[in-house]
Records
---
Amino acid sequence: MEALDIEQLRSETPGCAISTHFNHSGSSLPSNSTLAAVTEHLQRESLYGPMEAAANAAGLIDEARADAAGLIGATPQEIAFSSSGSAAWGLTFAALPPLKAGDRILVGRQEWGGNLSTMQAAANRAGARIEIIPANEDGSVDATALAAMIDERVRLVALTWLPANGGLINDAAAIGRVTRAAGIPYFIDAAQTLGQLPVDVATIGCDMLKGSGRKYLRGPRGAAILYVRKDFQDRLEPAYLDVLSSSWGEDGPNVRMDAQRFETSEKPIALLLGLGAALKQARSLGVSAIRERIVSLSGQLRDQLSAIPGVTVQDLGTEKSGLVSFTLEGMAPQIIRSKLAEKRITIAANGIPYTPLDMTARGLNEIARASVSYLNTRQEIDRLCDNVAVLARQAA
Ligand SMILES: Cc1ncc(COP(=O)(O)O)c(C=O)c1O
């Protein structure tokens, strides 16, 4: 017997009745309760005035912050909300001490393309260098190799925990042990991790971590979560301030003493309430139970895809996530995606820009990505694989 009542959860998710959704890592399907949290607040804004409605919702926003903190073993003072993962990442990176000529930033091979561009642009301005940490045989970032790269010029270690282009899971805690021992700032991109894997920031040993609301947490688009470790916050100077992140004192701005130094006073309250509802649901289901079901379903999907002639499952890693990547001989991933979309089966096709270092290192131009959620069923996996098998016959 399964721990989660999947039929019930699907019946509370309108999108499950419309399509066979395998793009949970792009953006998942929100539940009725998340939808209601968003739309009901928009209605209250129109009736009572947005500022007045926000004042009444302040307690719920506090709860959302506490739930975000609870999800990752942090305190509410260590959590800021943001509009996107990239905004959270960029704002935090820009607040680190300025790079100098000769400085080094060490990154995993799976680093998200946007983060990489941000770092490379800053490095170019300063005359600093971005260096790639070697990978283990299974493709994951090699913590021992990282330890050997550390010297006094290393300013940051950046890790994308679960890459966007497949099922690999990096050992974030092993990297954290190296950065802690060396006293080097450690920034984790947990876009695909939150709501999919149990997270405890103290065990991982990171200083900064960000994740999306819309992916495995099933929140609305336009909301993301940033964690900054309490004792690290003072080392970060936000690139800009507003009336929430600072107050005007006799000697100029007094920057807030918590992670909200990265928030602005103006924020999408409705979306944050939706994120709050999604966080509550993820926590009440339990991320360990979610993970267990994803392991089982994605294992089934990998096995069935591998059995289709012409299909190659492209996932690296020893332990794997719900992101299943594959290629089909004779058919480009974009074509696979659009042909499946005609059957109301949604998957993604990822090119080089999302994970340029990893794709280039592996000689891949594009992969098809079917990402599995606990909401998916075994019948949906059969349906996806039956349709991929039809395409494989067409491509042969
Ligand atoms: C690993 C990873 N990092 C960053 C991002 C970008 O997040 P956002 O689109 O919220 O800026 C994504 C989006 O898919 C991602 O998978």
---
Amino acid sequence: MTVTADFVVAGGGHNSLITAAYLARAGYDVVVLDARSEVGGGAATEEILTPGFLFDTCSTGHTLIQVNPVISKDELRLVGEFGLSYVEPDPVGHVVFPDGESFTMWLDVERTVEEISRFSASDAVAYRNMLEEFDQVKGVYSSYRFTPIGYGPSLDDALSAHPAGTVWRRRNVMSAWEVIRREFESRHVQAFMTWMAFQTAQPLDSPGSGYLAYSLVGGRQSRSWSVPVGGSASLPRALTAALEAFGGSIVTDTLVTALITEGGRCVGVEAEEGEQYRARVGVVSSIHVKTLVDMAPSELWGDDFLYGVDTYDEGLSSFASYYAMTEAPRFISSRGESVAAVSAGPAPWPEDVLEFGRGLRERRLHRPGTFLLFATPTLVDETRAPEGGHTLKILSLAPYECPDDLGGDWATGKDVLAAEHFGALLDCAPNLSEDHVLARNAKSPVDIEAGNPHMWRGTIHGGDRGLAYGGPQRPVPGWASHRMPIEGLYQTGATTHPGGSITGGPGRNAAIVILDDLGMSLDSMVAKGGSE
Ligand SMILES: Cc1cc2nc3c(=O)[nH]c(=O)nc-3n(C[C@H](O)[C@H](O)[C@H](O)COP(=O)(O)OP(=O)(O)OC[C@H]3O[C@@H](n4cnc5c(N)ncnc54)[C@H](O)[C@@H]3O)c2cc1C
């Protein structure tokens, strides 16, 4: 069987759906292929345990995409026409420290500052300063993230042109931990800041992670952990509706296994059963670059590109467990009141978090530093569970190869590790016991990869985001502008700038480049209302 379209898009995560929707809106005939039975990749909501309990099996918080013009200007009419909406949970988050003290972050800055001042008056001032300083430069960062590499100044140049540029150019190459330990004196406040900064799984001592010390709290303080009503899959559902309204189509259950090349040009893809999808204009991929290079002859990629992919760091792998609950976790606030938060967790001491991050690279779990995020979106969206019920996801990190002290095999080791994580939840949430669990499930890094080959080796952000693999280095220096070495082939998704998470940045940036190659400006096309 052969299908022909202007553009064939391999992989239907939210990024490639965004690229596809812009291309379709510009008047191109687009077909999106995905290996799974539903598109959306890491933006998925699934009934995995018991009827009526709809779990965000991957992402829950969509904070980062809120400043992407896809949402902020509603360029694809996802909000205005195709049913996408968000809630901003308050409190934003709650953490419990190893000594039993706790901390609640509120959308109201004053309330958060009050919590900080319980630990240190000077840290309360530092927190306020941090937010103010971040406010001044956040526009520079978001403009950089939502502009394709090569289409605007480098981040260093953009910061140089800013009045506070000297300070931020230094912060930009520091590590998150270097920033946090300089700005805050209290061990508790440092622990809270490291818990927040670690949420994108970037090691906190990696050069270039300094920005995360600001961006995570800055973003959450503005709009919380934005949660899509109906679940994470509401985003790809709205994108699907937009794509189809613009004339595009989707084919699911189709694993792409090879690129079709003719005369050195990529002219389509081949799927597992031998079906061919041929492209008149171009092919867009969000297949992980580590496997993409095996899908065409090596001479077409060239040695430099292959070297870049070979040395591209996969990043840290994730581990997740899921619980259908009869009650949501409730914690004890600093005032002794019962508090529930969509996003919560234990916040280990910073030195343990750093050691936990290092251990992951060495197939070792430094348990006192375990990063855990308890996500309970049903607290703000009751459409996802039967009355009174809650979906709880515990997100953590673990080595791809199962550590020996968990038996060396994830098939059994995952239940042992998930039980440890649930035990940590019970330590933090006194209202809960095993009796509140209706059903449970755990996914090791190996399971995460098996469910989505783009999450290569169980890494969920398309690869490390340190200095060597970000911006103009992502995925490979010289090929960061979405154009791949094989003519006719473009890359989007988390392995491209600005990387993983639900940002839509790689998706929109790729569309800008592709339309530019076709002599069209994305901005003018949107302003004109597409090709309609
Ligand atoms: C447990 C967990 C929790 C997370 N929590 C958050 C969170 O709260 N907030 C956040 O911002 N991010 C979170 N993430 C990360 C986020 O989900 C990803 O970074 C994001 O989904 C990347 O989007 P993408 O569009 O680049 O690719 P993906 O979402 O990975 O989509 C890629 C798509 O391509 C398809 N595909 C891959 N290879 C092929 C092939 N060969 N042929 C056909 N189809 C293919 C896949 O089936 C998939 O649908 C989480 C991830 C996990 C696993």
